[in-house]
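ESCALATION

Customer reports they have been waiting on this structure for their group meeting. Please prioritize. Original submission:
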Amino acid sequence: MANSNLEDVPSVDLMTELLRRLKCSSKPDKRLILIGPPGSGKGTQSPIIKDEYCLCHLATGDMLRAAVAAKTPLGIKAKEAMEKGELVSDDLVVGIIDEAMKKPSCQKGFILDGFPRTVVQAQKLDEMLGKQGLKVDKVLNFAIDDAILEERITGRWIHPSSGRTYHTKFAPPKAPGVDDVSGEPLIQRKDDTAAVLKSRLEAFHKQTEPVIDYYSKQSLVANPHAEKPPKEVTVEVEKVLSQ
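Update from on-call: job pushed to the front of the queue and completed.
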C-alpha cells in the first residue's frame, strides 16, 4: 500500500479505512500481554480484542521470521544466532518489538502474544517501554485447568486433505474416526497427543508462573475464566479492558 497510488484504490476501501481510523482515534491506548497455555483460547480472543481496540497483534515468533526475511539489521543478527543453533537473545526480541511498535497500525497500542516468557524478558520489556514513557496496561492470564485443556486438545481430530476439524466431544464426526464428507480416516496432530501436551504444559507452568507473579505485584493481571465458552470469555475480557 505504501507506494501504491491512492487514486487506484476503490472509494469503498478508502472510506472503510477512513471510518475505521476515525473510530479508532477515540479509543484509549492499550498495551496488552496475553498469556495462556496451548488450547486456552488466546488465539480466539486476540483478533476480537485487536479489532475492538484498534491494536496491532505482535506474535514474537512471526515477527522474528519477518525480520529475518526482510533482512533488517536485527533480523540479520537473529538469523546468525539461529544458524548457530543459539536462542535469539532477549535484547534482540525486545528490539524487534520496539521496531514493530513504530508502525502506524500500532499507534493505539499492541497485543503481545508469546512474550515475555520469563521474568528477565518482562523486565527488559518494561525498561524499553519506560524509555518511551509507556507501560503495559493489562496482562490477560488465560489460566485453565490442565484436565480441561487435555480434553479440549486431545479430542481434536483432523481430515488432512481438506483441513476439516472434529472434536470427539464438542463436534464429533457422524461416524467415529472418519470424515463426514469423504469417509476417509481422521488423524490426530502430533502436538495434540496427551504426552506432548503434558510436557508443553509443564514447561509453560514452570516458565510463565513467575511472569504472572511479576505482573501481579504491579496489579496488572486479570484472569478471565478461560474454560467458559468463547463468547462469555469475550464479554469478560471486554469488561476488564473497559475499566
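Sent to customer with the following note: The chain is about 50% helix and 10% strand.
Escalation resolved.
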